[in-house]
């Protein structure tokens, strides 16, 4: 993550302002870090904009700081697949299912309804989604 921040966020001089990992290690923020809730990181393994190893590194930094963290990697998914192409594709949506399962955790009625919910309908033809994936700058 540090490399990505260096290259995107105005270089080395801005690293301390923008890097979550650097902030986590700063002792003056230790109390604030101790108040963080459980964190779930969701990342596609084929993301070329922000490689998934940045989320792995951030998850490790969070764990080292004592934060409860879950890292979910979506094999073959790009930066935009999870929140753009997949929902437009319809059918099973892994990211949406994960988010809803977190929101509905502990609510047996809601989870039962989720289990029988019909799949989302396709909103765009596949060739349009593939074209969008190829043209996306992310």
List keywords for this structure.
single chain, serine-type peptidase activity, Isoprenylcysteine alpha-carbonyl methylesterase ICMEL1, Peptidase_S9_cat, 2 domains, AB_hydrolase_fold, two-stranded parallel ribbon
> How confident overall, as mean pLDDT?
88
Number-wise, the strands total 2
Secondary structure class reads mainly alpha
Helix content: 40-55%
Q: Name the strands of the widest sheet in spatial order.
A: 1-2
Order of helices and strands: HHHHEHEHHHH
Largest beta-sheet details: 2 strands, parallel
Query: In whole angstroms, how far apart are the ends?
Result: 17 Å
How many helices? 9
Low-confidence runs (pLDDT<50, min 5 residues)?
none
What global shape is seen? flat
The Cα radius of gyration reads 18 Å
- Strand fraction equals 5-15%
| Count of domains | 2
GO biological process, one term: proteolysis
InterPro entries: AB_hydrolase_fold, Peptidase_S9_cat
Protein name: Isoprenylcysteine alpha-carbonyl methylesterase ICMEL1
GO molecular function: serine-type peptidase activity
Descriptive report:
GO terms for molecular function: serine-type peptidase activity. InterPro entries: AB_hydrolase_fold, Peptidase_S9_cat. This is Isoprenylcysteine alpha-carbonyl methylesterase ICMEL1. Residues 27-79 form the Peptidase S9 prolyl oligopeptidase catalytic domain. With 138 residues, the chain is mostly helical. It has 2 domains: 1-77, no CATH class; 80-138, no CATH class. It is 52% helix and 9% strand. It has 9 helices and 2 strands; from the N terminus they run H-H-H-H-E-H-E-H-H-H-H. The protein has a two-stranded parallel sheet. Strand 1, helix 5 and strand 2 (69-74) form a beta-alpha-beta unit. Helix 6 packs antiparallel against helix 9.
